[in-house]
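Appendix B, example 12.
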Amino acid sequence: MHGVFENVLPLVPLLLLVVSLLLGRYPGCDAVVRLSERLGAQQPRRRRAKAQPRPRAPRFHSVSGGLLIAFGLAQRPPPPALQS
């Protein structure tokens, strides 16, 4: 008898959720509606107009690590042992 409770006890929350869904109740639905109404009622924040856009730093394209190996292998065919 003791082993039955140990096996069924973890299933109780799942069974309660399934029963409530079968009865037409959707747990958490009211909270989702309240949250969406609250977020929809907020006015959008105004962004400040930027006087001048900042210049972007130049991008450096240096090859390192795995890319270095990939570029090295891309310039020559695979070894003869691997060609099948």
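The mean pLDDT is 77. The helical segments are 2-8, 12-22, 29-41, 66-74.
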